[in-house]
């Protein structure tokens, strides 16, 4: 078979481009990104960053908890209060925040001055938040605690994993909140595993009763929390493999039915 003659289409196109009139206002200059020339464009280098070890461990732990099956007793800690509910609780508990070191110092100085002047010092009991794991545990066991908040990010989790069940048994309303640093801020500490409220003032009683009722429904009386197992989520690569296998099986079934 004789070969078809070659056409010089590419040459003709390049000639047309060359013949076009160039606008002197808009001169195209190719950028040179070599050393000492044009500035390199901004790129997303987050994949190449050497992250600190604690960040890596935090991310790896989060992925592990998504992949492996997590028992219900541990998985329930991820069911924290939503933003609206937590803001209501925190605004109430801020009123019962214990005194700071400076406030305590001022109070003791005032009491000492009253004593020197032969006056009776003000020894009225103040209702404040109780913190410390051992202290909160004794309050729950003796049924003195009216409300218990547990941080969801306590590490190791074994420190507080038994506390929700104790609250259920003693019929004390409890909740899981974000996070231990925020709980610590309420009681002037860096972090706090849990805090408890023992008494409420008369003006806050109605608001407290509504919150306690909601928490009982959401946590104490919610038996699904102790039944649902966490984790078991596969990664994106495994998901694609499963989808491809599913499609292949569907195609095979279609072929069998068509025959």
TrEMBL record:
Residues 118-204 form the Ribosomal protein eL8/eL30/eS12/Gadd45 domain. The keyword Hydrolase does not apply. PROSITE patterns: RIBOSOMAL_L7AE. GO terms for biological process: ribosome biogenesis. The keyword Ribonucleoprotein applies. Residues 1-21 are annotated as: Disordered. It comes from the Eukaryota. GO terms for molecular function: RNA binding. Keywords: Coiled coil, Ribonucleoprotein, Ribosomal protein. InterPro entries: eL8/uL1-like, Ribosomal_eL8-like_CS, Ribosomal_eL8/eL30/eS12/Gad45. GO terms for cellular component: ribonucleoprotein complex; ribosome. It holds the Pfam family Ribosomal_L7Ae. Residues 1-15 have a biased composition (Basic residues). PANTHER family: RIBOSOMAL PROTEIN L7AE FAMILY MEMBER (PTHR23105). Belongs to the eukaryotic ribosomal protein eL8 family. This is Ribosomal protein eL8/eL30/eS12/Gadd45 domain-containing protein. It comes from Paramecium primaurelia.
